[in-house]
Structure formats: C-alpha cells, structure tokens
Amino acid sequence: MAKNFQMKLQTLFLFVFGIGMAGCASYQPLPLDDKITLEASASHLMVDAKSLPFHFLSTHKFDPSDGWDMTEVAMLAVANNPNLILARDDAKIGHAQAFAAGLLPDPQVNLSRDIPVQPAPGVFKAFGAGVGYDLGSLVTHAASSSAGRFESQKADLNLLWQEWQVVAQARLLFSRAIAQENLLLWLTDNRNLLAGRYANAKLALNDGNLTSDAFNATLSAWQDISRQANELERQQLQTRNDLDALLGLAPGTDLKLADDEALGMPDENEVDQALAELTKRRPDLMALKAGYAAEDARYRQAILAQFPPFNLVINRTRDNTGVNMQGFALSFALPILNGNRGNIRIEEATRQRLRDEYQIRLNSAYAEVKRLVADSRLLTAQLRMSEAGLRTFDETAANAAQALAQGDLDGSGYAIFQSSRIAKHVEVTNLRQALLENRIALLTLLGGNFDTRNGIEERHP
C-alpha cells in the first residue's frame, strides 16, 4: 500500500512539474544596436494616421509631398518622438505590473525522504509529502488586483497626456520656425536698407557733407539691425534642431514647412464648458484620479493585511517504524508587535498626498486657463492696434516711393520711412506669434482641440 502511494506521489509530482515547466517563459536575446538610427531625411517617412490617438490627427491626410503642415508635423512627432517611445515602454511595464498584481501565489509542495544509514530489522524508509497554500493572500487579492487595474489605466492616461504635450510642442516649434522665417525676411530687408544708408552716409562724411554725429547714428542703426538678424539666425537654427529632436530626426534634416493652417481659438462659452468638463478632458487629471484609486485600493489592502496571515498544509507521512499518518498543519502570525500598522500609515499618508496633488493640479489648470484667456484679450487688442498702424504704413508706401522718385523726399527720409514700416511688420509678426503660442497653450491646458474659425491670418512679406 505504501509502495502504491509512493508511486502515485511520484506521478503527481512529475505531472505538476510538467505543467509548471510548460507554462514557463523561455529566454529570448535582445542585443543592443550600436548604430545610429536617426533619420537624415524625412521625404520617405510615412505615418499610419489611423493608429494615432487623437481624432484631429487620425482623420488628417498625411501627405507631406507639398510641404509639412502643422498637423503633419504633429502626426510625425506622436509617431516618432523618442520620449514617447520610452513612454510606451513604460506603459507596457505598467500593464505587466497590473498583470502580476492579479496573479495568485502558487501552492507549495513539500517532499522529504529519510533513508536509514544502517538497515536494521523493523526500520523502514521514512517519507513525508504535503501540499500547502498561503490562504492569507486570498484576503488581499481583490484589493491588490483592483490597484493593478487602476495603475494600468494610469499608465495609459499618462501616455496619452505625454502624447498631447508632444502635439503642443510640435505646434509650438512649427509656429516659431515659420515666424522666425518671416521675421528674418523683414530684418534682412531692413539690414540691406540700413546698409545702403550707411554706405551713402560714409560717402557724405568723406565729402564733408555729413557730421560725425549723424554718421555714427547711421552706423549704430545698421549695426543694431545686423545684430538682431544674426541673433535671429541663431534662434532659427536652435528651433530647427529642437524640432528635429522632437521628430526623432537627425540634426539639420531638410524639412520644408508649409504654413497653410490656422489654429482656432475657442470662444469664452467653449472655454467655460471645457473648464466644467476638465476632469473628463485632461488625461493627466484622469491619470491622477486613477492613481488615487489605485492608492485607495492599496490602503484597503494594507488594512486587510493586518489580519493574521496563515498557511495551511495537508500532509501525508510515514515514520521509520512503518506507521503511516496523514493530517494538516496550520501556521499564522500573532499581530502583537507589528500588525502591518506601519504599512497602513504609509498608504494612508500616500493617499492623502495624491488627493492633495489632484486638487492642486485642478486648481492650477483652472487658474492658468483664466490667465491665458485674459492674456489673449490683451494680445488681440494690441495686435489690432498694430495692424491698423501697419495698414497706414503699407498704404503710404507707394506714395513714399513716388515722392522719392520725384525728388520730394530725399533718400535719408525714405530710408527712415521704410525702416519704420519694416519695424512695424516685425512688431505685428511678433504679436501674431505671441497670440498663436497663447492659443497653443490654451488648447493644451483644456485637453482638447477646437475648430479653426477665428484663426490667425498670417501675412508674408
């Protein structure tokens, strides 16, 4: 009988071992690549629009053959940004951790065999076999699984928020690159104009027809505009390098930008509606909510874990006299000194911290949106005033050129007029860019996109 039991036990052990090995993962090598993988050209890049997370991206036709518009740049950024690649890896880790949190512990099998060193009459080989399980894990399993699910949601929402921020950064760098191109054209025109005025002033000074003070003023104006143009060229290079890095491209990649989109501005009713729905619109706020729910579940788990953990073992043994026995063993801890009270306090304090963080983030978002709306009103008023002044300059430009041709206006006066006109164009371009960046920031804070009405009309030289 004992022999039959041993054979059955061995068969059971081999069966359980076989099942366990069948479910084991196997090692797959993943060697590092020492080659640089940055793309040096964007002409062949393609983006699967349907795979992108936001509606205005997934429904936009990706065709940069006629130049990269703002949305196409944002699409490439979401698909190819290096930080988003790492964020997606982090989200996979979060899903794996949630999967691990939902698993129950494996049962424990204990086997023993005692063989007499010196065989003697009446002395048998002893053995012991038992199967045990940590029943305490069943008490906290529901809370642990719940925490894992919420953490998985948090990982996805954090990824979505990072993707939305990359869209905002792509819009920002795109708009700055376009604005800097326009500004450089105006500054170059002004620099060329002042360079000609400087050359004439130098000739007049050599002929004794101009004072040193007047010449120095002309020289200073030319040097100042040259410094502005040189500084803008450096800023333009930095913006392009930042855009290349955001898109996962090699520095200096030739990317032809096509400025044919107007970014819409939500009206105040839409802003108020978005603020009322902010906790359902902003992925970062929803991620904080999921993180708080996960921590609340861990707090419950810590409370449940204060009850004594216990293990149950069902065993079968035979001693060296040949007596067979079967029974059970139960072990548990006495919650006298620890009782998991330290972990309970830690989780309770952590939950409070997450609650405060959520409230502070919500308040900050509300205040920042209100500030941007007020700033937008101010910028809009300033832009209208500057555009009115610019129209006056543009309308009189032809008259000034005619007066110069007829000798009613000297070259110095005409140069001053043109310089003032170009400076007004620069002022208007800067105000338009400031208003556009305000709108990009507002759309980012509201966690959504709006239509393109009330778009900023760009004027090119």
In short:
The protein is an alpha+beta fold.
Write the layout of secondary structure elements.
Blueprint lengths: L1 H21 L32 H4 L11 H11 L1 H20 L6 E7 L11 E9 L1 H71 L5 H35 L21 H9 L1 H4 L1 H22 L5 E9 L5 E9 L8 H66 L4 H36 L15
Antiparallel strand pairs: 1-2, 2-3, 3-4
Describe the protein:
There is one protein chain. This protein is of the alpha+beta class. The chain has a single domain, classed as Outer membrane efflux proteins (OEP), CATH 1.20.1600.10. It is built from 11 helices and 4 strands, in the order H-H-H-H-E-E-H-H-H-H-H-E-E-H-H. The chain has a 4-stranded antiparallel beta sheet. The longest helix is centred in the middle third of the chain and has 71 residues, at 136-206. It is elongated and about 135 Å long. Residues 451-461 have low confidence and may be disordered.
Number of helices: 11
Strand content: 5-15%
Low-confidence stretches: 451-461
Briefly, what CATH class? Mainly Alpha
